[in-house]
Structure formats: C-alpha cells, structure tokens
C-alpha cells in the first residue's frame, strides 16, 4: 500500500484524537499507560486515546475507573459523532507495561480495565499488545486500522512519555506491525 | 425502614461501564432501589410508567440526549419536579446554561469522584444516612 502520511498527531496522556483522514497517523509513547485505538471500518473514522488510571492511594477504585471510563467514552462518543456505529467498532490495545520493578503493577491494572471496558461495551478487540516490562512507541493509521509498535530499548526505568518534539526511535529492530 | 431504602434512583447512560460504576457508587452510599436505562428514550418510558425520586443522567447519548430527557421530564406532570442531576464533559458552559434554564437540580463534570457524586445528591435531598 502506498500512502503518504502527511500529518502525525501525538496523543499525550489524558488526551484523545479522532480523525477521518487517510493521511494522518496517530502516535504515542506508552509505559504503564494504555492506548486504545478504535475505528469503524465502514464509517472511515478512527481514533486513539491514552490513559493512566490514578493509583489507589486513598482513593476508591471506583474513582480511578471513573477517570478511565471518561477517556474511553470521549473516544467512543467522538467516533459516534463522526458517523460510526457502536456495533461495528473494533479496537487494538497497547501498553500496560510493568515499568518499575517492585511497585504494584499499574500497567496490568490499566490493561485489565481497558479489556473489561471493551468487553462490557461489546467492542471487539482485534489486536494490539499489552504487558511486558518495556515502553512502546505506537503508531496507528485509523482509517486502515494498521498499527505499528516499536519496543523501547530495555530501560526499565522508563515511565513518563517523552515530549512529542523528540520521539525516541529504537535504533535497531523491535518494530512489529499489527494489521 | 430508612429513607435510603425507599429512595429510588434512575441512572441513565449509554456506556455500560459507566452505568455499572454509578450503580456501584450508589450502592456504596446505601441506596438500594436503582433502575438503569441505556438512553434517554428508555429512561423517559420508565419514568412515565413508574416515576422515581431522582434521575442521574449522562448528557451525550443516542436517541434522546440528557437535555432532551430533562425537557421531556419537566413537561410531564408527575415528573415535573423530580430532581435531575446531569453528567457532562468539561467546558460545556452553554450546555449547563441550557440545563439550568430547563430546571436541572445539579450537575457533575466527568470524570467525577464518588464523594463528588454523593455531595451532588446530598445538595438536593440532604445528608444520606
């Protein structure tokens, strides 16, 4: 497929983007955060969000989930407003790594939340990659549904996303495409 | 029986997970009689058949949105004064003004915490015990 990617949108933590242009790629960097990439192949619209559930220190788990539900809802509602149908939505999930040894596995909590949410809403999961102990750079072409991830080189201390101006690129290999 | 055991709340949201969260939070507060509707149309039908004591509704829903539901509830005699809490996204000032004009009792900005939801309810019905 020859396709010129004209614009690249970086989805930062707490954000979501919905697009209906073929030449746009959505990209993000994930540690224990999770990004849901969702599209409606017939309505030709798709998008990505990027969330990290707040920890349970003093909060109830319902409060933490409320935050995640909100970011998932924003993405799904954004798609529906562009003509998508709920039953046609398909999702790929990325992230949820265990990036810091010894702490509670926030990555797994995020991944589990995202999977449960999609199951509850009847949105099928068609691909993606969750877990592990390394960060990822993810690219998603919302109209074709193509996704590519590059595992960040084995630095377990990686936590926060790098600002969009200097995206780290893995020097060698580790790039996997998810169709 | 205490007030909480009688208090009937209708939760309206098109997102299943969101409905589950709100329902769990209400149960944590001791509210036992909770009904759920997945859109404004279903909520309106339920309110006409059997009105409840409070409606907690999302704004962004298919068929009938939260504002249209509020308008319909306010124009139907038996539910004209039913307390209504609207759940909205951030920065919807115009929406809030429209809701106030239609007689909304309180609102909550998503994502909200359980204590915030409790406060929003207590501001209308008094302290939940």
TrEMBL record, chain B:
Start and end residues of each Response regulatory domain: 8-125
InterPro entries: CheY-like_superfamily, Sig_transdc_resp-reg_receiver, ST_Response_Regulator
GO BP terms, alphabetized: phosphorelay signal transduction system
Tree of life domain: Bacteria
4-aspartylphosphate: modified positions: 58
Keywords: Phosphoprotein
Name of protein: Response regulator
Lineage: Bacteria, Pseudomonadati, Pseudomonadota, Alphaproteobacteria, Hyphomicrobiales
